[in-house]
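4.2 Preliminary Data

To establish feasibility before requesting continued support, the project team ran the inverse folding procedure on a target of 93 residues. The structure was first converted into the token representation described in Section 3, and no sequence information of any kind was made available to the design step. The complete token record follows.
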């Protein structure tokens, strides 16, 4: 269920493998095997900022609107990237 996915996804800390593809996008490792999901065969043209996605065994947060091929499982209300904040991201590699 959606609630089970939320509980499984949020119950553990993740290791930031790297920041990339766009400023502030974290590639997070340590996704529970039950949530491993392949990338979409065709990327969407617009994923909203704050979207939480899964691609294979990684998860990540879209810091701004952008195209993307990850499976979207939810959204965070947090602004995870802000050019006017120091530091600009809410996390570090």
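Position-by-position output of the design step:
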């Amino acid at each position: 269920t959606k609630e089970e996915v939320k509980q499984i996804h949020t119950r553990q800390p993740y290791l930031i493998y790297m920041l990339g593809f766009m400023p502030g996008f974290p590639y997070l490792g340590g996704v529970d095997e039950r949530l491993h999901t392949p990338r979409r065969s065709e990327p969407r043209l617009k994923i909203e900022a704050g979207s939480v996605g899964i691609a294979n065994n990684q998860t990540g947060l879209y810091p701004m609107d952008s195209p993307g091929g990850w499976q979207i499982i939810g959204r965070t209300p947090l602004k995870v990237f802000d050019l006017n904040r120091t530091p600009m991201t809410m996390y570090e590699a």
